[in-house]
């Protein structure tokens, strides 16, 4: 618009001043309109015409959208597992040596630097490109891109090219996915890309690609396939530093939809990421029909993949039935990769973190907020060639995080016929963190008795905190930690909820000795067992199980309730103290108590009590100690006592220093001896001392009958027999019971004393009774008190005896007919203390209490 002109009014008939003011007003209006016109023209071409708050982006202001993306990346950085803090700090230092507060801010700074470097803002159509797809636009892209420093705009439509090579400092922007399409020309070689950076060998930097669909056109020339290496993908960044790929769709690539890589996959040098890509962000990208993987990374660092979807590969880069085509694959030599809020479906593996055997594994990989739908294996971390017992340990497979990830209905897929469904698999990797993981199966689908979550193949240091599973009715296990020579170990699982799923809830294999299952709710539906382990090494606590035939099967034994099992030295309800061995415990104690040896237990102790040796115990004692390296010493309810004698239980009391001299009683488990410095007192109404004797005819003799010895056996006493005892039910002390084992189990000398021998136990010499060679421990032994031929015969004290009608209080009695007591006439026999039951002619006896001595 040119300068405004206006016509001055005629002065005839008007006041001169009025006319002057009127003309001045017209001039001012014209100048204002000119200023407005010039301002609008500048606004159209201004680089910073609007603030981000003024620009609408899908219902949100651009400022809101940028803030959302900024906070997401910031959160990803802050929620790394902390193992690569130095690398993350270093990544915030730019080439000029400036330190940015966050890595995301450094990316932003590089983005703004890209905008400042741009010298041309052009449309590829102005260089002869054809958005109708009727003619080849390759040359137009070459001319338009030039040496970079360009913002190249693409129109809506389809451009046919033989691949476009993007130089540094380039902003390539279309009108959106499905609106702007770049498609490979019919004559394009199979090795070409739709888009790649211009200089793979030397590298490029600061490249931004946005808003388009990339079609590799595999049907050209009658059908072409990937040629291998880093070729044949829709978009490849090889040795690119600072790259942005936003709102881009990759369709039917021969190899990958998006490949962030080094110039070659065959890197074996120690500094294997030196030629890789750095600081690349893929956001809101889509890949489908890929011959290998949707999104992949190789030998690259600080890669961000967000809000992207990879689905339904063709698998054509592989042999039929063996297509390892994955949604998102973090492959050989990648480091520091974040995958956030993405979605995969129909792949062999939804997200795979891996490496081939000859190359280093990906490290420090974090997958968050991901959804896998009907991928065969939703999440898989592995280092090929480092799985079997004879394979070398992986030196690089470390640090993987899966957080807030969901697996929905993993299924078989004919693209890879020999691989079975899993929600999650960890192989060879160490230091793996799994948090808030969800796996949902189809109860009607045939999982062919495969486990759904598998920890296997020499994986180590796996921490699972929060996992929810349901619906895998035809699987074998919901969670299985495989054992054996190539099994896993150091697996810690907590916060498990499983409902109506596999026959076995959580299983640990043989040789998995360092594992735990803490806090689990397992609700089966006619399941086999909630928890399984062939040993008792797994730590278990707070596990609720229902709906299984057995709650647990541990070490070959079934349990109706899962037992609590903790390893390691234990200290509870204790102000201080030290269980120095992992098999010892101190409970309910005060003071500096020390359990030094294995399998030691201290409870209710104080005063710096201590144990030495193995299998020691101190209970309810103060300032008491077991001494020596021998086994099996116990102190009970004592003060200042030392027990240095193995296989004994002692108690006592003393003041001052602890001593063996303060022992007041002792039980000898090895020899069966009981010693005490005080009296042995019966507080019941039992009043006689007795011994066991066997009846002569092997028949039972009734209580209260007098008996006489015939040899070493007894029979009912008859008139004229000496009375040697009475069958008693009131004996306070009974000898000769032989209640634990055969009376002649141990050899005796000619005086009836035990014969001893010296044995070696755990390197120590012990003196023990010598066993009779005729002793057969396989034969069942019945104690004497359960056999009718053995009787308790009262010998001394107050004893109940059967009497005839001749007996009165104060009389003396001896044996009458068949052991019934009768009055003596010669003042001999035993004195009658009282009559308990008067004589009854129908019973044929009364009952008196006599005194025997």
UniProtKB/TrEMBL annotation:
Residue ranges of domain Peptidase G2 IMC autoproteolytic cleavage in the record: 633-852
Database matches in Pfam families: Pect-lyase_RHGA_epim, Peptidase_G2
Domain of life: Bacteria
Residues covered by the Rhamnogalacturonase A/B/Epimerase-like pectate lyase domain: 122-328
Transmembrane region(s): none
Name used for this protein in its record: Peptidase G2
Organism: Bacillus nakamurai
């Amino acid at each position: 618009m040119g300068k405004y002109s206006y016509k001055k009014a005629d002065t005839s008939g008007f006041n001169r001043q009025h006319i002057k003011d009127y003309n001045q007003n017209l001039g001012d209006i014209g100048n204002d309109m000119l200023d407005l016109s010039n301002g609008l023209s500048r606004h159209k071409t201004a680089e910073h015409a609007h603030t981000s708050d003024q620009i609408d982006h899908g219902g949100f202001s651009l400022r809101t959208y940028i803030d959302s993306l900024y906070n997401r990346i910031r959160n990803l950085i802050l929620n790394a597992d902390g193992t690569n803090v130095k690398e993350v700090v270093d990544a915030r230092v730019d080439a000029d040596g400036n330190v940015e507060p966050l890595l995301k801010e450094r990316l932003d700074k590089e983005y703004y630097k890209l905008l400042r470097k741009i010298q041309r803002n052009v449309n590829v159509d102005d260089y002869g490109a054809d958005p109708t797809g009727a003619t080849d636009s390759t040359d137009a892209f070459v001319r338009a891109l030039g040496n970079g420093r360009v913002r190249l705009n693409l129109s809506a439509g389809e451009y046919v090219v033989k691949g476009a090579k993007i130089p540094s400092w380039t902003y390539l922007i279309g009108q959106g996915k499905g609106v702007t399409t770049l498609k490979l020309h019919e004559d394009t070689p199979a090795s070409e890309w739709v888009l790649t950076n211009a200089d793979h060998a030397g590298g490029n930097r600061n490249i931004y690609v946005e808003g388009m669909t990339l079609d590799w056109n595999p049907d050209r020339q009658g059908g072409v396939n990937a040629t291998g290496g880093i070729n044949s993908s829709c978009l490849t960044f090889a040795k690119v530093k600072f790259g942005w790929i936003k709102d881009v769709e990759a369709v039917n690539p021969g190899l990958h939809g998006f490949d962030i890589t080094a110039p070659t996959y065959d890197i074996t040098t120690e500094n294997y990421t030196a030629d890789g890509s750095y600081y690349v962000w893929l956001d809101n990208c889509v890949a489908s029909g890929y011959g290998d993987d949707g999104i992949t990374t190789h030998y690259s660092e600080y890669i961000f993949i967000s809000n992207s979807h990879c689905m339904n590969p063709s698998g054509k880069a592989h042999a039929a039935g063996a297509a390892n085509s994955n949604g998102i694959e973090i492959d050989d030599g990648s480091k520091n990769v974040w995958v956030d809020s993405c979605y995969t479906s129909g792949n062999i593996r939804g997200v795979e973190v891996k490496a081939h055997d000859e190359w280093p594994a990906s490290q420090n990989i974090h997958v968050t907020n991901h959804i896998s739908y009907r991928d065969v294996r939703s999440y898989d971390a592995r280092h090929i060639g480092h799985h079997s017992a004879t394979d070398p340990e992986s030196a690089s497979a470390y640090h993987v995080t899966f957080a807030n990830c969901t697996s929905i209905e993993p299924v078989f897929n004919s693209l890879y016929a020999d691989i079975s469904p899993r929600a999650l698999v960890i192989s060879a990797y160490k230091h793996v963190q799994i948090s808030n993981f969800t796996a949902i199966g189809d109860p009607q689908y045939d999982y062919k008795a495969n486990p759904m979550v598998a920890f296997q193949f020499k994986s180590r240091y796996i921490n699972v905190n929060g996992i929810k599973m349901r619906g895998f009715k035809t699987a074998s296990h919901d969670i299985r930690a495989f054992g054996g020579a190539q099994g896993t170990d150091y697996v810690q699982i907590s916060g498990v909820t499983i409902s109506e799923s596999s026959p076995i809830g959580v299983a640990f294999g043989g040789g998995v000795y360092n594992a735990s299952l803490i806090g689990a709710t397992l609700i089966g539906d006619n399941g086999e067992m909630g928890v399984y382990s062939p040993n008792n090494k797994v730590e278990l606590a707070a596990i609720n199980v229902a709906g299984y035939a057995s709650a647990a099967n541990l070490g070959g034994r079934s349990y109706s309730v899962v037992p609590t099992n903790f390893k390691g030295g234990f200290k509870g309800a204790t102000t201080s103290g030290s269980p120095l061995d992992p098999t010892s415990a101190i409970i309910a104690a005060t003071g500096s108590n020390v359990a030094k040896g294995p399998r030691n237990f201290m409870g209710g102790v104080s005063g710096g009590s201590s144990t030495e040796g193995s299998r020691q115990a101190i209970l309810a004692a103060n300032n008491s100690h077991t001494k020596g390296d021998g086994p099996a010493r116990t102190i009970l309810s004592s003060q200042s006592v030392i027990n240095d004698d193995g296989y004994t239980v002692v108690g006592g009391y003393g003041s001052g220093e602890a001593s063996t001299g303060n022992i007041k009683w002792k039980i000898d488990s090895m020899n069966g001896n009981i010693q005490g410095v005080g009296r042995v007192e019966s507080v019941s109404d039992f009043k006689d001392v007795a011994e066991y004797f066997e009846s002569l005819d092997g028949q039972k003799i009734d209580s209260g009958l007098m008996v006489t010895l015939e040899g070493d056996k007894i029979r009912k006493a008859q008139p004229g027999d000496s009375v040697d005892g009475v069958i008693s039910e009131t004996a306070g002390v009974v000898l000769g019971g032989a209640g634990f084992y055969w009376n002649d189990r141990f050899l005796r000398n000619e005086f009836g004393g035990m014969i001893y021998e010296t044995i070696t136990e755990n390197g120590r010499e012990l003196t023990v009774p010598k066993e009779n060679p005729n002793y057969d421990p396989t034969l069942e032994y019945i104690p004497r008190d359960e056999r009718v031929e053995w009787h308790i015969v009262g010998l001394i004290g107050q004893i109940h005896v059967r009497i005839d009608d001749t007996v009165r209080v104060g009389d003396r009695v001896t044996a009458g007919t068949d052991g019934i007591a009768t009055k003596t006439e010669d003042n001999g026999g035993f004195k009658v203390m009282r009559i308990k039951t008067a004589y009854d002619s129908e019973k044929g006896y009364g009952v008196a209490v006599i005194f025997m001595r």
